[in-house]
Here is the input.
Amino acid sequence: MTEDISDGEFGFTWGQVDGLLWIRNGEGEYKRLDPAFMETLQAVASGGTDLEDVEEGARRTIETLHEEGYLEPGAQIERLETPEDIRLWPRLLGFGVSFGALAAYLYTHWEAATTVPTDPLSIILLLFLLFGIGRVSTTLHEWGHYYACTPYFEPEIGSERLNGALPAAVTYTTEAWRCPRNIRLWISLAGPQVTVLIALAVAGVHLLVPGVTVLATYVLFEFGRLLLNFNPLLEGDGYLLVSDALGIVNLRTRAFEDLRNRRPSLPAAYAVASIVFTGLLILGVCVVLLGFVAQIAGL
Here is the structure.
């Protein structure tokens, strides 16, 4: 695989953000690079240094990058410019105010939110809210992520199983790697912000028709989803926010590699906690749903 680059020049796409150097392949995948290695890579790519003259470790890394599609024979070295940073605090303030308003609503309407419907009409309305409006809310949540990305790159939306178990729609934001941290944090926060606004809209309708308590129940459901989404033990927005805020790159990948290799480490402890939490979460959801159905059925 190395003959194609050992006899001539090659190119690659790279950039720098928040002091980190990265390289990208044709599939949109990214890798971090050490600054010293970048100098070696550029020297080999431009033909100034022969690959065979490079230190063995660096040579193996270059060969691996070529095998994984990061290096293209005959191409140019292209640097992608880093997008201009944004002010994050107004967005954080807006989210904090709206989330606080949602929490205050639930605090003052807790009895209504936890009232189990018994009449058929209320049950049908609740099911419509959960599976109809809830699906719309999920779609708009992902649209929030998508919209936050569009000034900088074009993301894709697909479906995955979070933590290998929980089905969910996801917005693939790998390209956010080339954006400053404030932009990455906003991209992760934009989806929950949309969810909060939808929940507040439903809460507003409940304030107009307080007798329809299933509206408050739906708001509680959305609030619970938000809390789960913000849990860093799940592979959701909370995980991305914590990773970016703390500057931890590929935490889950490192965590499960350490766990598979039985290597004691904090990432491995995170992996164990994530697995245990996911199992307890699935069990808890099943228990709550069964209890809810039993109350409706009068069992």
In short: The chain has a mean pLDDT of 85. Residues 89-249 form one domain. The CA atoms of residues 60 and 197 lie 51 Å apart.
